[in-house]
Amino acid sequence: MSENPILSVEAVTSGYGRVTVLHDITLEAGRFGNVGLFGPNGHGKTTLLRTISGLVAPKSGRVAFDGKDITGLSARAIVATGLIHVPQGNKLFPDLTIGDCMALGAYSPRARPHEAENREKVVKLFPKLAERWRQRVRTLSGGERQMVSIGTALMSHPRLLILDEPTLGLAPKIKDELCAAVMDISKGGVPLVVVEQDIEFLLELSRQLFLVDHGAVKTEIRPGESLEHSEIMAMYFGH
Amino acid sequence: MSVFSDIVFGGLFQGSLYAMMAVGLALVWTTIGVFNFSHGVFMMLGAYFAWQLVAFGLPVVIAFPLAVIVMAGAGWILQASVVRPLIGRPNIVLVVVITTLAAGSLIENGALTVWGPRSKQLPSLIEGNTTIAGVGVSLHQIAIIVITPLILAALWSFLNRTRLGLALRAVAQNEDASQLVGLNVTALYGLAFAIAASLAGLAGIFMGGYRFMNPSMGADPLLKALIVVVFGGISSISGPIFAAYLIGFFEAASNYYFGLYWTPALLFLVLIGTLMVRPEGIFAGRSRGLA
């Protein structure tokens, strides 16, 4: 892995309107490999991701992607750098077909030349999507919609993929399928930043973990400092 | 036979104008989620721009398309000035009703100041009259009946067959997700307004060719377009198109059998009846989105 962090967040304060969710949060990610974020709900993980991807403008602080300052850029400009965010939930575009979603994923000029090659990758990763290519997203199951979400992001030709709870609310069998697909993406050379409640999966996937609590990084776990499940649970619940 | 063709012809003609207006209203609603109450003023403005360009001595084939293009710019400007600053506010629907009504009123009175109250008329698209199936009609009206479906079909294929159209449909469904695939949401909002304004402007040009124009000529078509979109459902652009023709035929039939004065009352009666049975409109799907 590279010497420099692919993503760095420096003293970022962010939130919605007058509500501040992130307080001076700092983290450097991707120096060692995939990054996992965990922590109790409502403590800023999603807001952190939304701030990184430009959906929420930070009130102060700095966000850099691959050494380039992306603070305050529009979401569109950030997509153009190759930082792709798969948001939580699977609302997506309910009345578009899977094929439409994939075409949209390749909308940015950066991704367009790779459209055919990325489509092949997505179909290989999620063969189910190919069978339902002309089906509307609203008619798909939760797991399939999550596949469309991730597939759309892959169509954007990511240099870094941010996943916000990719397995939230899925049945165990589908969940395993998705976890395997996410591992495949990682093996394919795309670094990941993942928020996930399933700690087992997160431990398997990531080499660096951050516990986000009260809008700040409470603990960072680096490679070599491997942790047991029980210890993480203790961090989660035992204050 | 003549009665029947009278009604069919009248329905097609009115339906075309309503469809042209209603589609723009639906396009703005589906993409931005606001009702544009200056839509009728767009219609008026299109007609006056065209009149002004003709008065400058431009031939109709240049003046009319140019007026439509100018209207696209006007739509964009209106969006940027009275809609865009409000996007993201929780009460946007209501606030935009006020801002677009206000802008409409300003523009209408501006037109009154610039062009005066005296009625004007545009040249017809095609001069002359003909008789079809026992009904005497003007070629101008025939042209409108033929051109409108072509334009609506072009709009449909733009929305469904092009990447930019896909982007417009997407932004209607999920703004966050649209941003995360790199769509320029503000530009797409502007585009929706620009297209809507051009279509309204074209409807104005159509209308100015067979009826006298005045600065408040857009008020009644706006009302009709509102009825059409409520009746047809605002979740797509095909719903309002069908509804526009349906209402056109209804009006033509009602005008013939019950007279001009009863028609609006009957129209509202049918509308209320429809909404009691299908509150989402007769052709509506379940959600907001262009299809």
UniProtKB/TrEMBL annotation, chain A:
ABC transporter domain segment(s): 7-239
Keyword tags: Amino-acid transport, ATP-binding, Nucleotide-binding, Transport
CDD domains: ABC_TM1139_LivF_branched
Nucleotide-binding keyword on record: yes
GO terms for MF: ATP binding; ATP hydrolysis activity; branched-chain amino acid transmembrane transporter activity
Any one Pfam family match given in the protein's UniProt record, by short name: ABC_tran
Signal sequence range: none
Keyword Nucleotide-binding set for record: yes
One BP annotation, GO: L-amino acid transport
Similarity annotation: Belongs to the ABC transporter superfamily.
PANTHER family per UniProt: HIGH-AFFINITY BRANCHED-CHAIN AMINO ACID TRANSPORT ATP-BINDING PROTEIN LIVF
Protein name: ABC transporter ATP-binding protein
Organism annotation: Mesorhizobium helmanticense
UniProtKB/TrEMBL annotation, chain B:
Transmembrane segments: 17-37, 49-72, 92-116, 137-159, 187-210, 222-250, 256-277
Taxonomy of the source species: Bacteria, Pseudomonadati, Pseudomonadota, Alphaproteobacteria, Hyphomicrobiales
Predominant cellular place of this UniProt entry's protein: membrane
Pfam families given in the database record: BPD_transp_2
Presence of keyword rRNA-binding: no
Compartments where found: Cell membrane
Membrane topology: Multi-pass membrane protein
Keywords, alphabetical: Amino-acid transport, Cell membrane, Membrane, Transmembrane, Transmembrane helix, Transport
Keyword Zinc-finger assigned: no
Gene Ontology MF term list: transmembrane transporter activity
Name the record gives this protein: Branched-chain amino acid ABC transporter permease
InterPro entries to which the protein is assigned, alphabetical: ABC_transp_permease (IPR001851), BCAA_transport_permease (IPR052157)
Gene Ontology terms: cellular component: plasma membrane
CDD domains: TM_PBP1_LivH_like (cd06582)
Family under the similarity heading: Belongs to the binding-protein-dependent transport system permease family. LivHM subfamily.
GO biological process: amino acid transport
